[in-house]
Specification:
globular; 4 helices; mainly alpha; binds iron/sulfur cluster
Length: about 100
C-alpha cells in the first residue's frame, strides 16, 4: 500500500500525520529546517529550491533515527508513509513515478 504512493505524496501524508491530520497546521508549519518542509503541501517546489524528494526522505529518516543508519533499516513503523522510501530510493516491489 505505502509503496504505491509517490515520494512526494508520502511526504505530504507524513506531514499530515505530524500535524494531527490537519491541513492548516501543515500549511503554516514554521519548521523551515525540516527536511520535508518544501514538499509538505504535496507539490513540487520550484526547481533548485529543494533536494530531490527521495533524498529529503532519507535525510528525514536519518534525523528520526538520530543519525543511525542501522535503525533506519530496522525501522518497525511499517505504516509510516515514508517507510518504503526510507533508504532514499524506490522499493524494488513498488513505488510510482515521481521526480527524483
Ligand atoms: S515539514 Fe516537518 S515539522 Fe512541518 S509538518 Fe512536515 S514533518 Fe512536520
Ligand atoms: S520510516 Fe521509520 S525512520 Fe523513517 S520517518 Fe518513518 S518512522 Fe522514522
Amino acid at each position: 500500500m505505502g509503496s504505491r504512493r509517490t515520494p512526494t505524496r508520502a511526504i505530504r501524508e507524513a506531514c499530515l500525520q505530524c500535524r494531527g491530520f490537519e491541513r492548516g497546521p501543515v500549511r503554516n508549519c514554521q519548521r523551515t529546517g525540516c527536511e520535508l518542509h518544501m514538499r509538505r503541501m504535496g507539490r513540487r517546489p520550484p526547481a533548485g529550491t529543494a533536494p530531490p524528494p527521495l533524498r529529503s526522505v532519507r535525510a528525514y529518516c536519518l534525523a528520526c533515527c538520530n543519525g543511525r543508519r542501522k535503525e533506519i533499516r530496522l525501522c518497525p513503523v511499517a505504516d509510516c508513509p515514508l517507510h518504503p522510501y526510507r533508504f532514499g530510493r524506490r522499493p524494488v516491489d513498488g513505488g510510482t513515478g515521481d521526480e527524483r
